[in-house]
Amino acid sequence: MTKLGLVLEGGGMRGMFTAGVLDVFLERGVTFDGAIGTSAGALFGCNLKSQQHGRGLRYNVRYCRDPRYTGIFPLLFTGDIVSRKFAYERVLRELDPFDAGTYRKNPMEFWAVCTDVLTGRPLYHRCGTMDAVDVEYLRASASMPLVSRVVRIEGHRLLDGGISDPIPLKQFIRMGYEKNVVILTQPAGYRKRPSRSASIAAASLRRYPAAAEAMRLRHIAYNQCLSYLRKEEARGRALLIRPERPLNIGHICHDPGDLIRVYEIGRGAAVRNMERIQEYLSENSAEKKL
C-alpha cells in the first residue's frame, strides 16, 4: 500500500506561505499518512496534525511585535532570538494553546528535522505526543545558528534542521513514503548561493567543526536537494507546491501585514493547485482500494 507523505521546507517567516497552504488543506479535508518538516516547516506543520486552522498565522500576527516573543531582547537576555519561555511555553500552553489531545488522536505521523552539531548530520525525531520533549525537538529544529543556543535533548546537541536537510524528501522516501506533496518556500529557478551570513554562522560554530563545515556547504546541500526534487517529481514521487515569485520576507518579521500577505499567497497557491493535488491523492486512494 503506497503511503502518502507531506514534506515541508523551512525558511523562517517564509513559513507563513506553508501555513496558508496547510489551512486550505484543512478546509478541503486533504490528509496524509505522514508529514515531515524542517525548521519553520515543523513549527507550522504540527498544526495540521492538531487540526488547528489559522493557529500558525494567529499567534505570529498577535505577538510578532511583542518583545517577549522574538527579537533583540530575548537574544540579549537569553541567547535565543525566539524566547523559549514565551514562545514555546506561554504561547503554546496558555495564550494560544496547542491541541495536544487532537494531535495524539490523529493517526498521521509527524517528524521534525534537526541538525546534530557534533556530527553535522540530520537527526529525525518523531513527535508522537507533543509533550515537553517533542516541543524541545521542534524548538531545536528551528534554532538558527548565530542567534540561538545549541539545544540539548536526550544526550543530543541540536540546531536548525535546515543546516543538514533543508527539504527532507529523500528521508521520507527512505521511510516508505513513495508519493509526497512537497511545500517549498522559494520559487522555481531559485538556487542558493554562498553568503556572508552563512560564513559568519559557520564561524560561530567553531566549537562544533562538523556543523560548521555543514553550514559552510549549506548552499551546495540545498541545491542538491533541488536536483533530487526534480528527479523525483519526474518519477511521480513528488508533487511540488511553491510560490510563483520571491516572498520577500525575512526569517524574523515584526510586521503583521507582511505575515498576512505571505499567508494569503500560500492560500492562493493551494487553491490554484487543488485540482492537481486532489488528482494526485485520488490516484493514491485508487491504489489503496486495489
Summarize the structure.
The chain has 290 residues and is α/β, with parallel strands linked by helices. The protein has twelve helices and eight strands.
Describe the structure.
- Strands 1, 2, 3, 4, 5, 6, 7 and 8 form an eight-stranded mixed sheet that branches.
- The chain is α/β, with parallel strands linked by helices.
- The protein has helices spanning 15-28, 40-49, 55-63, 72-78, 84-95, 100-105, 132-141, 169-174, 196-204, 209-216, 218-235, 256-289, and strands spanning 3-8, 34-38, 109-116, 121-126, 151-153, 156-160, 177-183, 238-241.
- Helix 9 (196-204) packs antiparallel against helix 10.
- 49% of the residues lie in helices and 15% in strands.
- The chain has twelve helices and eight strands.
- Mean pLDDT is 95; it is low at 286-290.
- The longest helix is centred in the C-terminal third of the chain and has 34 residues, at 256-289.
Helical/strand content category: alpha/beta
Strand element count: 8
Q: What would the average pLDDT be, to the nearest integer?
A: 95
In DSSP terms (H or I, runs of 4 or more residues), the helix count works out at 12
Q: How big is the Rg?
A: 18 Å
Distance between the termini: 9 Å
How much of the sequence lies in strands comes to: 15-25%
Q: Low-confidence segments, ≥5 residues, pLDDT <50?
A: 286-290
What are the defining features of this structure?
eight-stranded mixed sheet; alpha/beta; 290 residues; 49% helix
Layout of helices and strands, plus pairs?
Elements: E1 3-8, H1 15-28, E2 34-38, H2 40-49, H3 55-63, H4 72-78, H5 84-95, H6 100-105, E3 109-116, E4 121-126, H7 132-141, E5 151-153, E6 156-160, H8 169-174, E7 177-183, H9 196-204, H10 209-216, H11 218-235, E8 238-241, H12 256-289
Parallel strand pairs: 1-2, 1-7, 2-3, 7-8
Antiparallel strand pairs: 3-4, 3-6, 5-6
Helix pairs in contact: 1-2, 1-12, 3-12, 9-10
